[in-house]
Amino acid sequence: MRDREASLVISRLAAEIARTSEGLDIAVEEEHWNVFAQVDQVRFCAMLLVLAQGVDLKRLRKTPRGPKKPRTPRTKHTGKPHVSTAKLLAGALGLGPSCGSP
After folding, report:
1. Helix (H/G/I), strand (E/B), else coil: 61
2. What residue spans define the domains of the chain?
3. Alpha-carbon distance 41 to 51, whole Å?
4. Where in this protein does the record put region Disordered (predicted)?
5. How far is the CA of 86 from the CAs of 18, 26, 74, 75, 77, in angstroms?
6. End-to-end CA separation in angstroms for the chain
7. How far is residue 26's CA from residue 81's CA, in Å, rounded to a whole number?
8. pLDDT in 10s for each residue of the chain, 102 residues
């Protein structure tokens, strides 16, 4: 059950409920809603469960993420795990490895 819940997009579910309830307000007369106002909580929950079984969960499912692209291999300094930016700048400016230290 958790997998199914995790795969739903809550915003899609909320939008579907909003569209449906707006349409029901227009299409169904107010006197027909009195049945739900007068029923006890246990029976109301049972009615909701019956209605929920008719929901098409495939329409509300998240779109699965595609596979990640592989990292591009390093082209420079392949043998070194880290290259100091200060040393690269010093080498480019001809200051040598001391980086201007006395």
Report:
1. strand
2. 2-60
3. 15
4. 60-83
5. 58, 70, 19, 19, 15
6. 68
7. 66
8. 555 556 667 788 788 888 888 888 888 788 888 888 888 999 989 988 998 888 888 877 777 888 999 988 888 777 878 878 888 888 888 776 554 444
* pTM (predicted TM-score): 0.40
Which token pair is 5?
Answer: 């819940």
8 Rama sector, left if φ>0, alpha if ψ -120 to 50, beta otherwise:
beta
In Å, what is the CA distance from 47 to each residue of 25, 37, 94? 19, 13, 81
CA 100 to CA 102: how far, in whole Å? 6
CA 93/CA 88 separation, integer angstroms: 9
